[in-house]
Write a structure and sequence with these properties.
The protein is 30% helix and 29% strand. Helix 1 runs antiparallel to helix 2 and helix 3 crosses helix 4.
Length: 386
């Protein structure tokens, strides 16, 4: 039996379902029927069991939310939907392989809407390093971006060529990391990216090397190519474990950087809450460019003179940046210089004993309070101490 013939029949069935959905007067019902036809086919044992299919919004631990996605491919086995019901579904981006934006007729306006939706999803997955632990082993690697496909039941008085031109126009002002992985028009053909030597570029990593787009009129074989590419793209995304603690106290984007633990400061007799500003964060990044990290073990010995009881090796060997241009004294140095007549005079403003750690793009930066200056802070809008 020829496999292509099977998918030609599926393609015809989807078109038939779409024709039925066109009879619905209520636009919301029509959209739900249209998306449901595709989702029902894929959910009927056409996708490996580890892939779940949903619809809704996607969120990041930075507090950002995507636009509504028509079809979300998520991790059914290890993923944790934050909300899952017939009407409301919210997924952490770490659980999402990719999205499919489903359209009835793919006009230029509908294409642009779909592209912006995909961009809002891909913007949640960033290039910052994610640190997590599996048993005694600590890992660190970049978080993947979900893939994004535009799937349409037909054209809208236009052509595959004009859609390709519309896509190139939109991409001319967008970074490659936000580009769609493929555009599909059922019964017509597909649009995707190519690299040097006419090499196909489907995955997010391949798209970064693309130099142009191409369109192929597969006609009745179009659905076969969509389905096979969907499976390949899903398999290409290696998800990371979901850490719900990050959602309880989310990090934030400050410019192009993802920052955590940089807020929550207060000043005496002031009800405003303060945070480290973008200028100081950028200063830290510039200061440590080309500088080696130190281990947590080294930092604790510098600060306390000894290692705390109960810490495991993986914790001690994790690395951080220590901002200490003046070589401030720690507990051991202060103990050595204590006055004989009694006690240790601890000037916490000029020692390593009081320090604050912040996280920038997955890396830890420890800054003794002695180095903090008023110009490094700004008030957090709308936050006050109760």
């Amino acid at each position: 039996m020829e496999v292509k013939r099977i998918f030609r029949g599926v393609s015809a069935k989807l078109l038939s379902d779409f024709s039925v959905s066109a009879m619905y007067e209520h636009q919301g019902n029509k959209g739900s029927f249209r998306e449901g036809a595709l989702r029902d086919f894929l959910a009927s044992d056409r996708m490996p069991s580890k892939y779940g299919l949903g619809t809704g919004e996607i969120v990041s631990s930075h507090g950002e939310v995507s636009k509504q996605s028509d079809l979300i491919v998520f991790d059914r086995l290890n993923g944790i939907p934050l909300l899952y019901s017939d009407t409301v579904q919210v997924f952490p981006v770490e659980s999402v392989y990719g999205v499919v934006e489903v359209k009835s007729k793919l006009s230029k306006d509908e294409l642009l809407k779909a592209l912006e939706n995909i961009k809002s999803v891909k913007a949640l997955g960033d290039d910052s390093v994610i640190q997590y632990r599996n048993g005694p082993i600590a890992y660190a690697r970049k978080a993947p971006r979900p893939f994004g496909i535009v799937f349409a039941y037909g054209l809208a008085n236009n052509s595959l060529e004009s859609l390709a031109n519309n896509l190139q126009e939109w991409e001319s002002s967008e970074e490659k990391q936000f580009w769609p992985n493929m555009i599909v028009v059922l019964g017509v053909g597909v649009i995707y990216h190519i690299g040097a030597g006419f090499v196909s570029c489907f995955t997010n990593e391949q798209i970064l090397t693309s130099i142009s787009t191409t369109r192929l009129q597969y006609e009745e074989d179009t659905f076969f190519h969509f389905y096979s590419t969907l499976l390949s793209l899903s398999a290409s995304v290696e998800l990371i474990p979901v850490d719900l603690h990050k959602y309880l106290k989310p990090s934030q984007r400050v410019g192009k950087n993802v920052v955590k633990n940089h807020d929550g400061f207060r000043k005496p007799e002031c009800k405003e809450v303060f945070r480290l500003n973008a200028a100081f964060i950028q200063y830290l990044l510039d200061y440590f460019e080309g500088v080696e990290k130190i281990t947590n073990r080294e930092w604790l010995v510098k600060q306390l003179g000894k290692l705390p009881i109960g810490m495991e090796d993986w914790q001690l060997e994790s690395k951080l940046y220590l901002y200490d241009p003046d070589g401030l004294p720690g507990m051991a140095q202060l103990s050595a210089s204590a006055k004989p007549e009694g006690g240790i005079a601890l000037d916490t403003e000029s020692t390593l004993l009081h320090a604050h750690g912040i996280e920038i793009n997955g890396d830890t930066y420890v800054i003794p309070f002695a180095y903090f200056k008023p110009e490094f802070f700004e008030a957090v809008p709308g936050r006050f101490i109760d």
